[in-house]
């Protein structure tokens, strides 16, 4: 195994230049070295390889068969290194496939509107966007960035906070007319409470009554896999749902949904993070560009 202090690519480069320019002196001028330094470098290379590469008995540089083979392979290796460096330099321009996973509500209200501008700025990026409220394994799913709501579990992922959003209990006017508008947390027991169909960090609906925290467990005749589905069920008058404020902002303004029990709302918020694999190394430029675009454009309520 080669010693770590041996600069093999540097040796190849000097040796190749000696051959290309036909001598030690010419190569020394090209590298701003002394001819003796170049000669010593080639000698050390021959000693390490255990083979003579250059015959020094004549005034004209003459390669041995081993020298010819080493020169030809060195040229190919140096060309590959140069190509690799050009490729790495080119990667500073965002390009390639970018896989992003986000919840359905966040995707609908934030990501989808931002995609055209992002891709217009970075036309060499191809975006693969998956919307699901399920928590995915970034490594297993080969996902570059995932958007996650709520408290983050300890992991090897890197997180960039995008903001926080209020939570609000809402219902359609038709449902409230039929079932009545709850005036206190205890009245939720007689209402149809729409819930998520998967485990969440906070299962119940937290409220505060007379300074005392109250948690209501949602029970109803329907649950859904994502927040957007719950919103549609609430809009359809099926029951009450507790959703992110950004998700129902337009519905509240338009009167399609009505917020209830706001006097009992504890003001709790859900943080929203962009998580990604990136600990211990630089991010691909496409990932960095996407994260910067999100941070600049996303404004949560």
Report what the structure shows:
The chain is an alpha/beta fold and 301 residues long. It folds into three domains: 8-90, Arc Repressor Mutant, subunit A; 96-164 and 271-297, D-Maltodextrin-Binding Protein, domain 2 (3-Layer(aba) Sandwich), CATH 3.40.190.10; 165-269, 3-Layer(aba) Sandwich (D-Maltodextrin-Binding Protein, domain 2), CATH 3.40.190.10. It is 40% helix and 23% strand. The protein contains nine helices and 13 strands. The strands form three sheets. Strands 3, 4, 5, 6, 7, 10, 11, 12 and 13 form a nine-stranded mixed β-sheet that branches. A two-stranded antiparallel ribbon has the order 1-2. Helix 1 (8-21) packs across helix 3 (35-49), helix 1 packs across helix 4 and helix 2 (24-31) crosses helix 3 (35-49). The longest helix has 26 residues, at 65-90. It is rod-shaped, with a radius of gyration of 32 Å. The protein starts with 7 loop residues before the first helix and ends with a helix. Residues 1-5 have low confidence and may be disordered.
The value of Rg in angstroms is 32 Å
* Class from secondary-structure proportions: alpha/beta
Any low-confidence stretches, pLDDT <50, length ≥5? 1-5
Helical run tally? 9
Q: Tell me, briefly, the overall form.
A: rod-shaped
Number of strands: 13
Order of helices and strands: HHHEEHEHEEEHEEEEHEHEEH
Mean pLDDT: 86
Please describe the biggest sheet, giving its number of strands, its sense, and whether it closes into a barrel: 9 strands, mixed
Count the domains. Answer: 3
CATH architecture of the largest domain: 3-Layer(aba) Sandwich
Distance between the termini: 59 Å
CATH level 1 name of the largest domain: Alpha Beta
The CATH superfamily of the largest domain appears as Periplasmic binding protein-like II
> What fraction strand?
15-25%
The share of residues in helices is 25-40%
CATH topology of the largest domain: D-Maltodextrin-Binding Protein, domain 2
């Amino acid at each position: 195994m080669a010693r770590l202090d041996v600069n093999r690519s540097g040796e190849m480069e000097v040796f190749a230049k000696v051959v290309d320019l036909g001598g030690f002196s010419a190569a020394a001028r090209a590298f701003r070295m002394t001819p003796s330094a170049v000669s010593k470098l080639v000698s050390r290379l021959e000693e390490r390889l255990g083979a003579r590469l250059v015959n020094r008995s004549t005034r004209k540089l003459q390669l041995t068969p081993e020298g010819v083979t080493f020169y030809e392979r060195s040229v190919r290796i140096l060309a590959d290194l140069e190509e690799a460096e050009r490729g790495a330099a080119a990667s500073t321009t965002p390009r390639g496939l970018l896989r992003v996973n986000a919840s359905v509500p966040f995707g609908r209200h934030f990501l989808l509107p931002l995609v055209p501008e992002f891709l217009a700025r970075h036309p060499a990026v191809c975006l693969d966007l998956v919307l699901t409220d399920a928590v995915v394994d970034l490594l297993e799913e080969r996902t570059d960035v995932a958007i996650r709501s709520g408290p983050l579990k300890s992991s090897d992922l890197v997180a960039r906070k995008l903001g926080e959003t209020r939570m609000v209990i809402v219902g359609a006017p038709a449902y409230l007319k039929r079932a009545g508008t709850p005036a206190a947390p205890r009245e939720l027991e007689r209402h149809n409470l729409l819930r998520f169909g998967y485990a969440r960090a906070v299962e119940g609906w937290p409220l505060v009554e007379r300074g005392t925290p109250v948690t209501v467990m949602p029970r109803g005749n329907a649950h859904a896999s994502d927040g957007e589905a719950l919103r549609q069920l609430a809009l359809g008058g099926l029951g009450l749902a507790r959703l992110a404020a950004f998700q129902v902002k337009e519905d509240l303004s338009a009167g399609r949904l009505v917020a209830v029990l706001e006097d009992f709302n504890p003001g709790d918020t859900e943080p929203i993070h962009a998580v990604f694999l990136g600990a211990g190394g630089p991010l691909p430029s496409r990932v960095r560009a996407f994260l910067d675009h999100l941070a600049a454009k996303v404004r949560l309520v």
